[in-house]
Fold this sequence. Notes:
Elements lengths: L1 E5 L5 E4 L4 E4 L4 E5 L2 E5 L24 E5 H6 L2 E3 L4 H18 L2 H20 L5 E4 L10 E4 L8 E5 L3 E5 L1
Antiparallel strand pairs: 1-2, 1-11, 3-4, 4-10, 5-6, 7-8, 8-9, 9-10
Amino acid sequence: MIIFKDLLTGDELFSDSYAMTEVEDGFFYEVEGKWVVVGEQEVDIGANPSAEGAGDDEAVDPSQRRVVDLVDASRLQEQPAYDKKNFMAYVKPWLAKVLEKLPDEKKDEFKAKSQPAVKFLLSKIKDLQFFTGESMDVEGTMAYAYYKEGAENPTFLFPVYALEEMKC
Length: 168
């Protein structure tokens, strides 16, 4: 398995156990999240609930919660929404930090692809959710989630150039 970590913070962001594709000219990995229920699971041993005083009003188990699998597994931390101005104030220094960490042979490619990628994010800014890694370092790499038209599950975008692979 390959774990993808933030190049800037070292936070684990996701793994190759999720289906992923490259989008926006290879600038992002697009990863599909899925809503799941986590928590203690009740085991049905065949007892008759009505005979034991259980009613129909026990619809939701308080020990369970509904989460996005990718967010829960990677301990991603949701951040407040950004408007265009605040996002640009974040992304300009972030681009410079990533560029600084890249090998020389990838720098020109990163520069060429970053402007269209930022424009793509800006076009969706009102629909995006922003996530950091577990350290909650808002100067590190963010993951961006949105819902495709008609989708029940979120789609995440992870900047390829800001990731390092770690084999497990």
